[in-house]
Amino acid sequence: MRRSLSLLLLLCLLLGGCAAGTHREEADNTLYFFHNNPCESCHEDRVFSDLVHTLLPDASPTIRSYYIYASSARAVLQELLDRYVIEGDLTYPLAVYRGHFLFGYDVISRQLPDLWKEDSNR
User: Fold this and answer.
1) CB-count exposure of residue 16 (10 Å: 0-12, 13-18, 19+)
2) Beta partners for 30?
3) Per the structure, how many domains does the chain have?
4) Mean pLDDT per 10-residue run, the chain (122 residues)?
5) Is there a domain that residue 108 lies in?
6) Does pTM surpass 0.70?
7) Taking Cα atoms as reference points, which of 70, 60, 89, 73 lies closest to residue 33?
């Protein structure tokens, strides 16, 4: 009985830490990237990562990449949509940074550096 109670307590602590980690990620400059390219040899994740490092050469953001048709990606995207109350049609590729939804590589390239700079000036 004591062992079960200890395991339950440990589980509660771990789950609480995971839930808290979600909000901490955003404070730690996490970029979420969603794409719909099923081509595995196209390395969409690497293309985005290279773009980010070109746009933000002195930064070290945490990049979370997702293929949008994976069930885990849908859950993460839905959480972000709910958190920031975003409705309507989405287009891909999509980058999400602190509540800013950037659709397409052109928009990401134009807006991400300014958003990052604004954030670092706070």
Assistant:
1) exposed
2) 62
3) 1
4) 41 37 55 92 92 94 95 93 90 95 96 90 60
5) yes
6) yes
7) 73
Token pair listed for 52: 């980010």
Instruction: Provide the domain limits for residue 73.
Output: 29-120
* 61: helix, strand or coil: coil
Residue 106 backbone zone (phi > 0: left; psi -120 to 50: alpha; other: beta)? alpha
Question: Which residues does residue 94 pair with via DSSP β-bridges, in sequence order?
Answer: 34, 103
Please check whether residue 97 is in contact with residue 115, taking contact to mean a CB–CB distance below 8 angstroms: yes
Mind giving me the DSSP string for 63-101? EEEEETTSHHHHHHHHHHHHHHT--S---SSEEEETTEE
